[in-house]
């Protein structure tokens, strides 16, 4: 077996997406509108969106916290996973992004399940204290703040809460200790926190998909 090339893994990712995810007008329009608004194409790949959706369902999640809304693509996947009466609270720092996401989420028919909180996550997260605990937390925002977000995931969760951290592979750079750039260092510190903080039990997987070579960390609050 030869080592995979980008063309190889992208072809396989498209096959997985076509076979297991299929086409979805609301999701595809959300990506289109995100691009039209000038936002970067950093939403999760379709197979990863379905992965989040299934994790939320497997966990029986009724309350989901998402840190980093962008254009609402992953938010729609998560909102479709929670049952009637469930709630997705998603935090977006940029008001313009939040407005695009709101339109896409409403068009997808899950608007009543989604509460978009606009503001920097470091300021919004403390306002969630005292609410019912979250059953699943998805962290997909600035990597420099991953340790802050993980701390709040534990504080706002409960024993058994599922925590997912996206983009932890960074094309292999996380394993290069000489790379001290802010995003790489923030990602590395988050992973080390998951390893050492007694509130978590965690692992991480490399991913090869439409977004390239990266990874995802999966943790449980204990």
UniProtKB/TrEMBL annotation:
Keywords from the named record: Methyltransferase, S-adenosyl-L-methionine, Transferase
UniProt GO molecular function: O-methyltransferase activity; S-adenosylmethionine-dependent methyltransferase activity
Gene Ontology BP terms: methylation
Family annotation (SUPFAM superfamilies): S-adenosyl-L-methionine-dependent methyltransferases
CDD domains: AdoMet_MTases (cd02440)
PANTHER family found in the cross-reference section: CAFFEOYL-COA O-METHYLTRANSFERASE 3-RELATED (PTHR10509:SF14), O-METHYLTRANSFERASE-RELATED (PTHR10509)
Annotated protein name in UniProt: Putative O-methyltransferase YrrM
Species, as recorded: Microbacterium telephonicum
